[in-house]
Amino acid sequence: MKKALFLALCLSAAVAQAQNIQSTDPQPLRYIDVTGVSETEIDPDNIKFTIRIREYWKEEFEKRAKEENFKTKVPLAEIENDLIAALTKAGVKKEQIFVQDAGNYGRQTGKDFLNSKQFELNLDDFKTVDKIIKTVGTRGIDYMNISELTNSNMEQYRLDAKVEAVKAAKAKAIMLVEALDEELGQVIYINDSNGYAYPKTRMANVMYSAGAEMEADGAMNSIDTVRKIKLQAEVSVRFQIKNK
Prior knowledge:
This protein is α+β, with helices and mostly antiparallel strands and 244 residues long. Helices cover 33% and strands 35% of the residues. It is built from 5 helices and 11 strands; from the N terminus they run αββββαββαβαβββαβ. The chain has helices at residues 2-24, 76-89, 126-135, 154-178, 216-223, and strands spanning 31-42, 46-54, 56-57, 73-74, 97-107, 113-123, 141-150, 184-192, 196-199, 205-207, 229-241. The protein is elongated and about 90 Å long.
């Protein structure tokens, strides 16, 4: 009888312990995944400006001249000297000018090759770009374009953008959770994507045809579309939803 009573008491204690363990088990983790994005525009302090020159025929600029009659070639050295003089007048220093490429542009049947040369200018601001466009003549200029925009404090701007992206993710999570009468809990993890920087619009080429003139105002309008660096950061964050 005592043995049976002892077994009954043990069984009762075991059931009570099991119920107690079950009641203290944590509830299933509830969470929400959100993505935060931040965008900012930065003024560049380094502008890479590319200019390519090529030889041309003087007859190209004569009215009603036929292509088969083109014979007087303007040499590359002359075009280059004119370009350097115009750049100097616009305030560009020699140490800001680098030769990128040189070669043969092409050759028409029965005629000499038209040689070309490409320069890269390292500029500090768009005021100089504006002066270049107004100063450089179009004859012998194959094209000009902004090839790259950078800022010396880009890494700090990237970090600041990521912080803002995290804040945006938290604000979004709070809004969504509170809409369900729930309360946002602690952060479970943050997934940081690299983000990226790009010009405000696609890099605009200021194209010039060696056989046609172009108004400086048209070139200026094209350059105006790429005066800012647009920096974007994106992070994914998982937040806990508090259990009630």
